[in-house]
Write a structure and sequence with these properties.
Alpha-Beta Plaits; Cation_efflux_CTD; 325 residues; Cation_efflux_CTD_sf; 9 helices; Cation_efflux_TM; transport
Length: 325
């Protein structure tokens, strides 16, 4: 968590400095196109401040009111960031639409381009770093903030090109027209962030993460693990919670069952790349399981093994043993 706080704090300080630079460029040029970037920088600062708080809250230990911890606040943070970006985009579109029909003189475009280009490069480097770190930790808040900064870099690059185009062509209405295009791009980016946050808040399955879990289980499965089914996953910030049913030989005593459950838990936490909390319900095997069971020297086997049922995403997420498929 200290690493996450440090990254967000760097983003917050950098965003504040860049915001001042962008508004200086706007007052220097009086360009709506520059204002689009300056207005979005306000969102960067506010979003980073909220992200800093959400990461702090996500690190608070679970309590009676929050038995699964406070990790979901990170999804809420991403929602706020997306909403703020969307509002900024809509304001930019409205102001630029008005200015399209009522253009105002603009000036010092070359100097403004230099300032905006510099801020874009800084945002690009920081955004790439945050996305890389956000995936490694993992933290959806840091990754979302990084993607936002990369969006800002794309905006700044387009801004520099547009300002130079206006400077050389002297076509003033391009300032507002290009601002509208950038505003639409910002709104689309906001939609993607909101969509992702709502998916997390509604416990939508993250198939990339679950697929990796299933892959590890399949490649490292033990002969005692007859099947895994009814697997469900929920993300709580940087932590994954999985419910599943594990079928084991029905002659195992409680101690052996407990050991097998611990092995599943340890395997995923060691090799799946994400901290995972398991809630495993164990099922006893039935005679119908024998035809795909690999357990050697089984004292109750009713028939020889004749099928190999792979553990695929589709198989393990079904709410029934494999023999019922």
């Amino acid at each position: 968590m200290n690493q996450q706080k440090r990254i967000i704090l760097i983003s917050l300080i950098t965003g504040t400095v860049l915001m001042v630079m962008k508004f200086a460029a706007y007052f220097l040029t009086n360009s709506n196109f520059v204002l689009t970037d300056a207005a979005e920088s306000i969102v960067n600062v506010v979003a980073s401040a909220f992200a800093f708080y959400s990461i702090y809250l996500a690190s608070v230990p679970r309590d009676e009111n929050h038995p699964y911890g406070h990790g979901k606040v990170e999804f809420f943070s991403v929602f706020i960031e997306g909403a703020l970006i969307g509002i900024a985009g809509l304001i930019i579109i409205l102001k630029s639409s008005y200015s399209f029909f009522n253009p105002e003189p603009i000036h010092d475009l070359v100097l403004g381009s230099v300032i905006i280009g510099t801020t874009g490069i800084i945002n690009g480097v920081l955004g790439y770093y945050m996305i890389k770190k956000g995936k490694a930790i993992p933290s959806i808040t840091i990754e979302a903030d990084g993607r936002h900064l990369l969006t800002d870099t794309v905006t700044s690059a387009g801004l520099v090109v547009g300002l130079l185009l206006i400077y050389f062509t002297k076509i003033l209405w391009l300032d507002s027209a290009l601002s509208i295009i950038v505003g639409l791009y910002i709104v689309f980016t906001a939609y993607k962030l909101i969509r992702r946050s709502v998916a997390g808040l509604m416990d939508e399955t993250d198939f990339a993460i679950v697929s990796e879990v299933v892959k590890v289980l399949s490649e490292r499965r033990h002969e005692e693990w007859i099947d895994i089914h009814n697997l469900r996953a929920q993300k709580y910030g940087h932590e994954l919670h999985i419910d599943c049913h594990l079928t084991l030989p029905n002659y195992f005593d409680l101690n052996r069952v407990h050991e097998e459950v611990k092995l599943v838990d340890k395997l995923i936490n060691d090799e799946a790349g994400i901290r995972t909390e398991f809630f495993i319900h164990t099922d006893p095997c039935l005679p119908y399981c024998c035809h795909y069971c690999s357990m050697p020297n089984c004292p109750i086997r009713s028939e020889a093994k004749r099928d190999e049922i792979p553990w695929t995403l589709e198989n393990v997420m079904r709410n029934k043993k494999h023999y019922e498929q």
